[in-house]
Amino acid sequence: MTAKTLKNVRPMGAATTDLYIVDGRFAAAAPEGAEVIDCGGRILIPGLVEAHTHLDKSLLGLPWYRNEVGPRLIDKIDNEREVKVSLGLDPQVQSERQAILSISHGTTHIRSHVDVDTHHGLRGIEGVMATREKLAGYVDIEIVAFPQSSMIPRPGTVELMDEALALGADVVGGIDPCGIERDPKGHLDAVFRLAEKHGKPIDIHLHERDLMGGFSMEEIIGRTRAHGMQGKVTVSHAFCLGMSDRAYVASLHEQLAEERIHIITTAPASAPVPLVKELKAAGILTGAGSDGIRDTWGPYGNADMLERAMFVGLRNNLRRDDEVELALDICTHGGAAIMEVEGYGLEPGDQADAVLVEGETLAEAVALRAPRALVLKRGMVVARGGKAVIDAP
Amino acid sequence: MTAKTLKNVRPMGAATTDLYIVDGRFAAAAPEGAEVIDCGGRILIPGLVEAHTHLDKSLLGLPWYRNEVGPRLIDKIDNEREVKVSLGLDPQVQSERQAILSISHGTTHIRSHVDVDTHHGLRGIEGVMATREKLAGYVDIEIVAFPQSSMIPRPGTVELMDEALALGADVVGGIDPCGIERDPKGHLDAVFRLAEKHGKPIDIHLHERDLMGGFSMEEIIGRTRAHGMQGKVTVSHAFCLGMSDRAYVASLHEQLAEERIHIITTAPASAPVPLVKELKAAGILTGAGSDGIRDTWGPYGNADMLERAMFVGLRNNLRRDDEVELALDICTHGGAAIMEVEGYGLEPGDQADAVLVEGETLAEAVALRAPRALVLKRGMVVARGGKAVIDAP
């Protein structure tokens, strides 16, 4: 049995108290001789949840990649497929680098989309699976088999997706049924067929805007209903929910809530986005993620989900303290609920996945984004003073 | 005579070289016995320029302010006027705190709007003027007399603006001629009259969106032409330039360029914004700023203009290296040109106002936003390792 007492800690910003951890879970008390950690009056929150990223794509640790890529989505997709070869990108090494950066910032759960295509086959999936095994106990990684280069126009991709799911991918991915696939029926039928066959949930990238995105959304909603997949389908990005026809968006929100379809946002500043306060009012579970981190798509990103909470706040014009707390909730409880994390929270019985953050209040913690004093995974210290206890390769 | 040699430095990311500083300016050579600073191969850029902030409003250093303010612009303005009293905010102390934070991040020039209203009179102006004097040699502060609470509806404000400009404010401020003032002709006539009387430039906050903002913009353009104030007028925010009618915006751009009216953006994620690539193409000088930093308006902001360059990049979807360099240019040369800073740059003869940044390239410096190794103001070290050499009060 291992046991810890977290002394002098403020759970979610409440009054200072002591918390106890026994065998990796929060407990009502700790036995004598438990290790004591003085938290210095800092706020404790449950582990941050990175609900949308691409662990296999990051260029972390490599020489600077000079980005001269064209402006269209397809330019970026085509460029990346080639650059992976010319740079000799190793998905295992890259995913380990990014995951360890995540740990250093207090992320305890990651959902990563991982490319599956006829050019690179299952190399990405195998690489991230190896990282998942290597970092077991430090961070939980959920893998989405992701047809980044499209599925229908590239024969053989559906079969590779099938193999990826048999091999160990947890979630069926999808991508713009109209914009990229040019065949919404073919694409979504394939995605839902794979989900049914493997008994796995779905998470679809939907960048399509305005009415085109609304159309694809309606098709996703219809299939969720038909397949009885309520609670098992997520739409990532969902830019169409940021369209100006708010009455139509409200009707989409209603249907999404009815089928318990979840939304994951990266809160980009330059695209229309789902409005998180409206999603909450409609009863739609919402998570957030960093998207790609320093990859061939763009130079930004540092895997800090407290910074992402700030981005969610800035993008949604969240200024009041209760609003900033909503942004943080999306980056913790929201993502965890979508990923169906068992025992997520700070109550006795919950997994001791937690982070100490700086600040007088939760809103200040988000505004400050100071290095994390301590990160716990199942009660084990995995980062201290903004540095993970393990080194990146 | 004081002299320095910056050894092993990469100006703007170019090859490693040595630079020389004599009596506060870059020079072609340094005399024997000059102090040698090894820059470790880091990139040197000219000092960051904070071209739009509110030094008098910040709550830095105070206990956390729980924000429960209403959603309208006028709610925030009215709330702030009251809270300044209830918190006993001292504009001198607050402006010094924020300015020293700016210095720590490598900002060498600040343009600050400072509230002028019938409730607080010139207390803000006097406070920031005292800070400007106290920090002379560490950072240059330009003061805009800013009628935050409106001018026309609050009799006595125009007279206070006049006094502020006589006292030492450098620039005539203005605010939404329609949205706040409800009297575009009255407001803009007063602003331009003050500018003419004092021979000072203008910087107007224009939050008005779409056609209303376009109308106010046309009125500003017309008066700039009539008063022969080409090159002396700036519009801050200019949300209307983000409107969807791009043909109308293009015609506004053309007129702005003709009258050499400048734009300063804070690149907010939740509002329409001027598109910096289009401004550049139109030949319009563009600067950037943090806007308010941790004040009663919102909890965000850290005075880091390298982070602001990232925000400009994210908001404008700048991903390629040359695009990210444009974002950085706006946060350095752009603001400096608008403020007509004499001798801004890294060439012999220029003021030795400069910052060492981390990264292989300029784009990486923006993406990383690592603590600044060294900040120089007129050749004097004013910050090191992310910390200013002077302490905040």
Give your account of this protein's structure.
- The structure is a homodimer of 393-residue chains.
- Chain A starts with a strand and ends in a 5-residue tail after the last strand.
- Helices cover 35% and strands 21% of the residues of chain A.
- The first copy, chain A, has 393 residues and is an alpha/beta fold.
- Chain A has eleven helices and 17 strands.
- In chain A, helix 6 links the parallel strand 10 (202-205) and strand 11.
- The longest helix of chain A is centred in the last third of the chain and has 18 residues, at 321-338.
- The first copy, chain A, has helices spanning 73-86, 91-104, 123-134, 157-167, 184-198, 210-226, 246-258, 276-282, 305-315, 321-338, 362-368, and strands spanning 3-11, 17-22, 25-27, 35-38, 43-46, 48-53, 107-115, 140-146, 171-175, 202-205, 233-236, 262-265, 286-288, 354-357, 374-377, 380-384, 387-388.
- Chain A has two domains: 3-46 and 345-388, Roll (Urease, subunit C, domain 1), CATH 2.30.40.10; 48-338, Metal-dependent hydrolases (TIM Barrel).
- In chain A, the strands form two sheets. In chain A, strands 1, 2, 3, 4, 5, 14, 15, 16 and 17 form a nine-stranded mixed β-sheet that branches. An eight-stranded parallel β-sheet of chain A has the order 6-7-8-9-10-11-12-13.
- The mean pLDDT of chain A is 97.
- Chains A and B meet through helix 9, helix 10 and helix 11 of A and helix 9, helix 10 and helix 11 of B.
